[in-house]
Amino acid sequence: MNNGKSDFKMTSALLFRLLPIQVLLAMIGAVNGIVSSLFASNFVGVDAMSAVGLYSPINLLIGAFSTMLVGGSGILCGRYMGRNEPEKMQGVFSTDLIFSVVLAVLFTVLLLIMGVFDLTGFFTQDETIRRIFNSYLIGQAAGILPFIVGNQLSAFLSLENKNRRTTVASLIYIGVNLLFNYLFVNLFRMEALGLALASSLGMWVFCIVEALYFLQPDAHLRFDLTDLHLHAGLEIAKIGIPGAAATGYQAVRGILVNKLVLAFVGGAGLSAFAAANTLLGFVWALPGGMLAVSRMLISISLGEEDRRTLKDVFMNMFFRFIPLMCALVLLLIALAEPLTRLYYRDPLDPVYQMTVWGFRILPLCMPLSIVCMHFVCYGQASGKQFLVHLLSILDGVVFVAGFTAILIRFIGMNSVYVANVLNGIGCIAVIVLYACFRYKRVPKTLDELMVIPENFGAAEEDRIDVTVRNMEEVVTVAEKVHAFCRKKGIDERRAYFAGLFMEEMAGNVVGHGFLKDNKKHTVETRTVYKDGSVILRIKDDCIPFDPAERKEIADPDDAAKNIGIRMVYRMARDIQYQNILGLNVLTIRI
């Protein structure tokens, strides 16, 4: 019997296979910020850096609404994938895109009004900075629509397992963004307006490259206005709002922290924070990508009621993602001064030392944030709304703004950096306290820390997991499935067919799927006894293969061809096949 290690390895391998493209996606906004900040500090001036910093909370606010749609639609589609309901996924796709366009138009109009009519006095009273900020807003308004819609398309491309398209779009975006910044800022001297227009036009190119896929005949998800369902939109918002609230709270936090920095440290502090925060935004793409791939598997696991995979996602987070992040944090701290010199060259300038300390302290909060983000995502997908809202407001506003307000009189700009680290520690403490409150004791297992309901999925004694690596183990798994069914009181006939079906389908994967390439493969099998039924699940990482396509194929010269598959489809009560994130998943009910 499989002790879970092999299943964990498959989950971990899947997460790391999906991680690069999700990190690249998360880098899009960061690259935009880095390029803008570098051109601002080197070609426009420190005041332009302040304008970039002032825009950050607005960008977070827009990102919060985009996150609401991405998170809500992604989790909802994950559930439907787990339940094999593709028609509902189609409705979510069309509804999400329509809501995205409406939302983008509203934000575009709002930013244009603020910039054109100088309605930005709330952000700063400095006339010079405000003039630059107004121009920056106007340029950014042009990119709101492709930014929001592009985020949605990226998520849906991942679900369609078309990550290569997103990779191409991302690389094109980076190149176009650099080109336009060089033209608008360095050659045409358009200053802040040029900074913003360069990223906006780059986002249009990114969005168009992604959108072209969904116009192709082989796209599973296609936009259809008739698929607009208000109830689907409300469900997307209901699921997505708790996660988006965290980003919205961060926008409020950004405004409050900016005001504290301007009041107690001055413009130099805001410029230092903008420089450190913007460049670290590139590094934040790694935790962001980690969360994106985990979100997919969390939502699918909840749809399938797969307790093992759900726990494996968190085990991977603790023992794979966090050590990787810690290694990167140490590297960032060691490179604090070289990174600072990308923006400021004079070590005697106060803004230089403020930026150095930003690179030394801020990275420490990243491993802590990975834990918090995963629990917020899990709470969001599983309906733990109280925990999600509590963590969102504490992480978003209370801890960072509160600690900054307390410490800024004593340690100046470093208070902002230290507050972010204390925020991560505080959030993890809240997660543990929440589990303590639910169980009236300190959690002893991962199940308890996650507060997974006892009736979620099949209990350990009601399932058997077996890993198959070769044809000899195929026979062994059939024997184990038969013995398991008899132990659970299943009659001899159904127990026999359960073992036979598992042998036939797992053997088909080993005999054919393993030979299609030169990669090493495994088959993870699971047999579940639930409510008097036997459920067989076969999961493998071979090339996509739907056995239903073979069950109707008969060869006059070989009457036995595909006979095993045809037998299973004729005798099983229900069979469902899906290719989920590059994995073949076959579920048979007897």
Describe the 3D structure:
It contains 21 helices and five strands. It is α+β, with helices and mostly antiparallel strands. The protein folds into two domains: 5-446, no CATH class; 462-589, Histidine kinase-like ATPase, C-terminal domain (Heat Shock Protein 90). The protein has a five-stranded antiparallel sheet, sandwiched between helices. Helix 4 (127-141) runs parallel beside helix 7 (191-211) and helix 9 (267-283) packs parallel to helix 13 (350-361). The model is unreliable at 553-560 (pLDDT under 50).
| Widest sheet: strand ordering | 1-2-3-5-4
- Which value, in Å, is the CA radius of gyration? 26 Å
Shape: elongated
Q: What is the subunit organization of this protein? A: single chain
Termini distance? 21 Å
Profile the largest sheet: 5 strands, antiparallel
| Count of individual beta strands | 5
Total count of domains: 2
Helix/strand order, N-terminal first: HHHHHHHHHHHHHHHHHEHHEEHHEE
How much beta, percentage-wise?
Answer: 5-15%
**SS element count, helices:** 21
Q: Regions with pLDDT < 50 over 5+ consecutive residues?
A: 553-560
Q: Which structural class best describes the helix and strand composition?
A: alpha+beta
Proportion of residues in helical segments: over 70%
On the 0 to 100 scale, the average pLDDT is: 85
Notable characteristics:
single chain, 590 residues, Heat Shock Protein 90, five-stranded antiparallel β-sheet, 73% helix
